[in-house]
Design brief:
Shape of chain B: elongated
Strand content of chain B: under 5%
Oligomer: heterodimer
Helix content of chain B: 55-70%
Number of helices of chain B: 9
Distance between the termini of chain B: 47 Å
Number of strands of chain A: 0
Distance between the termini of chain A: 62 Å
Structural class of chain B: mainly alpha
């Protein structure tokens, strides 16, 4: 296995979709290839950072819904009911 | 058309609650079905903010995002009688809002997308990394709030830079946590296409963050 193949199937590797035999080939490559160890770590960091950034945004937004939008939705409900 | 399309089909109650909806959902649902105005206001106040954040991420502008949230609520109100309580109300609304945003995206899609090739990793002729990957500079230790917020802003800005078809899949799978099958159904593509786009979107996001490390000072 080379780095290109490792990178190509990285997502399947992380989500546990690879059969055991193929997973072992990935693990063997990781033991021998520091750049792919770094790539894997950064790839996982990117996913985590994305989740974290949006979770913060959701939490802030949840606490302060725009009053005008709330009123517009409730008014639309009255109009449509 | 909106209410029928938005609130029907497999995405309407996909995230099952094993023992039925929680007590507070059951009570609220009962009030809604009786036409209790206070119940509607509670539902809208509890969910509008988060749904707006979701649709804003997908649509990239506030005006369309607000329209999508309003469309979603109107659709949900009309479909309440068909809601069977197999999912939480908030989850059901979330799926309807996501679909409302996707419908808006489809209606305005009329431009070719930029390539993400230059954001993907580069290999030599033997398939090995040409250069070691650049560290993203993501600190592992807890950081002061100000720095954490700057990091979050940088990550969100990088997501916004992704071409739409990649950004959408990344948002639906990694952020909104829809599964591959549901994402594929919502986008009208194959599950395999979702997997490929997600992987390439993550790689491209990594490429964007390497250009401006998230832990770096700006």
């Amino acid at each position: 296995m080379n780095c290109r193949e490792f990178t190509e199937f990285l997502s399947a590797y992380l989500s546990g979709e690879l059969p055991e035999s193929e997973r072992k080939v990935f693990d063997d490559h990781l033991r021998l290839c520091p750049p792919c160890v770094d790539y894997l770590a950064d790839y996982k960091d990117v996913i985590d950072q994305g989740k974290c950034a949006c979770r913060d945004e959701d939490e802030t937004a949840r606490k302060s819904p725009p009053e005008d939008l709330v009123r517009a939705i409730l008014a639309a409900r009255e109009k449509h009911s | 058309m909106h209410s029928a399309v938005l609130a029907s089909g497999s995405m309407s109650e996909t995230t099952r609650v094993p023992d039925g909806p929680p007590e507070d959902d059951r009570e609220l649902l009962s009030r809604l079905r009786k036409g209790d105005g206070g119940g509607y206001e509670e539902l809208v106040r509890q969910n509008t903010g988060r749904l707006l954040a979701v649709t804003r991420r997908l649509l990239g502008n506030d005006e369309d995002a607000r329209d999508a949230v309003q469309d979603a609520f109107i659709s949900a109100f009309r479909a309440l009688d068909r809601f069977q309580g197999n999912a939480r109300l908030s989850t059901w609304l979330h799926r309807i809002a996501v679909n409302a945003a996707l419908m808006k995206l489809r209606s305005r899609r009329n431009h070719p997308e930029e390539s993400i090739e230059d954001l993907l990793p580069v290999f030599d002729q033997n398939g090995f990394h040409v250069t070691p990957t650049s560290p993203l500079g993501i600190p592992e230790e807890p950081r002061p709030d100000a720095k954490r917020l700057r990091t979050a802003e940088r990550v969100r800005a990088a997501m916004d830079e992704l071409p739409e078809s990649y950004r959408t899949v990344l948002l639906l799978r990694d952020i909104e946590e829809l599964d591959t099958k549901e994402t594929a159904e919502m986008l009208g593509v194959t599950p395999n296409a979702v997997k490929i786009r997600l992987h390439r979107a993550r790689q491209a996001l990594k490429g964007l963050l390497e250009r401006a490390p998230v832990g770096g000072e700006s």
